[in-house]
Design goal:
Layout (H helix, E strand, L loop, with lengths): L1 H18 L25 E8 L2 E2 L3 E4 L5 E7 L6 E3 L4 E3 L5 E4 L5 E7 L11 E6 L1
Parallel strand pairs: 1-4, 3-9
Antiparallel strand pairs: 1-2, 4-7, 5-6, 5-8, 8-9
Length: about 130
């Protein structure tokens, strides 16, 4: 009886330890570690968006319609993220990059996805797909 209990306890311990493992080496969405989207598309371009307290590094970012792009978010100061609802894109420190293919031309608003203080509402930029 004691032996069965010790085996059971060992199995439970292994399961708990494996569930608590740290996966901090991946900065991308699950399945995107190779840079390929769920549809199997590799990025042809890369866009780096940097955030500091209450601003992005550019007021406008330009993308090409139909061209796969890997968007990388870098948080240089403060705690920020990016949100572009039309692309269903939300990036932050834990999820810092994603590959997407802009299918529609136009101008889209990007905003900070994390409440970052008094300047949060002014932390916006434009994504222009041409």
């Amino acid at each position: 009886m004691k032996r069965k209990f010790l085996i059971f306890l060992s199995i439970i311990s292994v399961l708990i330890l494996s569930a608590c493992s740290d996966n901090s080496n991946t900065n991308e969405n699950p399945g995107n570690s190779s840079g390929i989207t769920d549809t199997g598309v590799a990025p042809q371009e890369e866009l780096i968006i940097k955030a500091t307290n209450y601003s992005f590094d550019q007021k406008e970012y330009h993308l090409k319609k139909g061209v796969p792009v890997k968007i990388i978010f870098e948080n240089e100061s403060g705690n920020h993220g990016i949100l572009i609802p039309e692309f269903k894109l939300q990036l932050n420190r834990e999820n810092s990059s994603q590959v997407l293919v802009p299918e529609e031309a136009g101008t889209f608003e990007m905003s900070c996805a994390i409440m970052c203080g008094s300047g949060h509402s002014r932390m916006v930029a434009k994504i222009i797909v041409e």
